[in-house]
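[audit] Reproducing an earlier prediction to check determinism. Same input, same settings, fresh worker. If the tokens differ from the archived copy the diff job will pick it up downstream; this log only records the rerun itself.
[audit] input (148 residues):
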Amino acid sequence: MTKTSTSASTLTTDALVEHLNDDLRSEFQSIVQYVQHIALITGPEYTSTVDELKIHITQELAHASTLAEQVAFLGGTPTTTAREVTPFTDSHAALQADLDLEEEQLERYRTRVQQATELGLIDVAEALRPLLTQTQEHVRDLKSALGQ
């Protein structure tokens, strides 16, 4: 990999790859967390929420695939490890953990799109924009489910 930087930032392509791999670990965490939460969230008030989480999980898998492709495009090796998943406590706490993770990912994707743009990697920034849009939707869905 080559080091690339711009006057607007000291970020290098190598550092962007590291960040993208951390984003990938976060997506893997989301997938594992959603699998657990879909299986364990109970109560009639959560039926439609569980259905929505099933949609989220397929989108998270697509996000992971996109991130892995961008890492490889930039000359890196996509990670295969997930960040640790916090143990399930109750349905509300599980949904709050999902919201917290989605909000973190939202900020990460905003930053990543900006970083890719600053590095002149417009194609990478464009590949990441749909992740940003879907993550915004996930945040809205989870806030609604939590009555926020």
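[audit] rerun output stored. Observation attached for the diff report: The chain has one domain: 13-74+88-145.
[audit] end
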